[in-house]
Model the fold of this input.
Amino acid sequence: MSTGNSQNPKVDPKAAQEWPLWEVFVRSKAGLDHKHCGSLHAPDSAGAIQLAREVYTRRQEGTSVWVVQSKDIVASDPADKDMYFDPMEDKVYRHPTFYELPAAVDHM
Amino acid sequence: MYTQAMDLMAKEGGPAQKPLRSAEEVQLEARFEARIDDGGFIEAKDWMPEHYRKTLVRQISQHAHSEIVGMLPEGNWITRAPTLKRKTILLAKVQDEAGHGLYLYAAAETLGTSRDQMYEALHTGRAKYSSIFNYPTLSWADMGVIGWLVDGAAIMNQVPLCRCSYAPYARAMVRICREESFHQRQGYEALLTMMNHGTAAQKEMVQDAVNRWWWPSLMMFGPPDAESPNSAQSMRWGIKRISNDALRQKFIDATVEQAKLLGVSLPDPDLKWNEERQSHDYGPIDWAEFWRVVNGDGPCNRERLNARVDAWEDGAWVRDAAMAHASKQQQQDKEAA
Done:
C-alpha cells in the first residue's frame, strides 16, 4: 500500500532536475523476503543499487537489494481501503480455527 | 534538537485554522483523530489535516538539515584524528549522519515536498537546523564530547520519535536510533581514553570541551515547556511524545553520573541532587543565547551555511554528468535492442 514516495500528486514539477526517485527493497538474509526499507535519488539503476548499498546496508543489513523507480509502483488507493479489504472480514471459514474437530484429531 | 523545529513555528504565527470546512473534511478529520487516539499510524497517502502535514514537513526536513549540517563540525577533524582507529570511527560516524539525513529527506518527501525544495530552503537560510551545530569544534576532545553529550541529547530526543504517529518518520527514526548508539559510545570511550591515559594537558582539553558544550547541549531540547505553545498540538497528534523539559531533565540526570565516572565536572554551580524531586536541580539556561544562535548569530552560522552551499554548488557538475551518462546509456540500450 504505502510503498513510500510513489504517485505523490503534490510533488513540484520543477523537481524534474532532481535525480529520479527509487524505492529500495533489501533481503536481510537468505530465506527471507525482500522488504521495503526506504527510498533514494539516483541517476540510473546502477547508481541506485550502488547508493542503496551505501545508504541502507552500512552494517550488513542485507544480502540482496532491489530498486525500482517510485513512479513505476502501482498502489491501491488508501481511500478505498475499507471497500477493498473489509469484505474478507466476515469470511471466517477461510481460517483453520473456524472448524471444530474432535480432540482426537486436534492437531490436524 | 529536533523538537526545536516545532517550537520555532510558534514564533512564526502558529497554526492556521481554516474557518470553512466541508462535511466530508470534517468526517475525514474525525476519522484521522480517532486513529491517532487509538495509537494508530498515519501512512503517506492517508488523508491528514493540512497543519499536520505542514508541521511534519517542517520538523522532518529540519531534522534532515541538522544531520547534514551536523557533518561539518566533525568533518573538521577527520584529517586530524590522532590515530587511524579514531579516524575510521569518525569517518563511519560522519557517513552515518549523511545516511540519517537521507532517510529523513526521503520521509519528508512522502509528504509532498521535493528534495530540491528542501535544499533550497536550507541553502537560502529559510529553513533552520539544530542550533548546536553553529558552535565551533576547537580541539580533538570536542569530538568525544559531541559524541557523548550532543549525540546523547539527540538520542534522548529521538527515541520517543520512533513512536511518532507519522509512520514513514517513525520508521526512519527506528533505523537512526539503532545506529546512533554507537555514536555516543565511541565519544564517551574516546574521552575515557584521554582521561585515563592522557597527559594533564589532554585532561584539561576534555574539561574545556565539556565546559563549552554543556549548555548548548541542554538547549538542544528546545525552549522550556511554558514557552513552546505548539507542543500541545504536536503531543495531541502524536508527533511529539515527551515534553522538552521532561527530556532535558532525563538527560541531565543520566549525564551527571557519566560525568562522575569520567572525572569531569559540569559547568553549573547550581547543579545538585534534589531528594524530594528525585532529580537534579540545575541553573538557568541562557535562552537569549539560544534564540541568537537560532536566528543566525551563533559563532559559526555563516561558515556552516557557506560550507553547505559550496558543497552543493561544487557538486553540480557531478550530478549533471551522472544524469547525462544515464540518458546516454538509456539511448544506447534502446538502439541495441
Chain A touches chain B at residues 1-2, 4-5, 7-12, 14-15, 17-19, 21, 37-41, 43-44, 47, 54-55, 58-59, 75, 77-79 (CB under 8 Å). The radius of gyration of chain A is 20 Å.
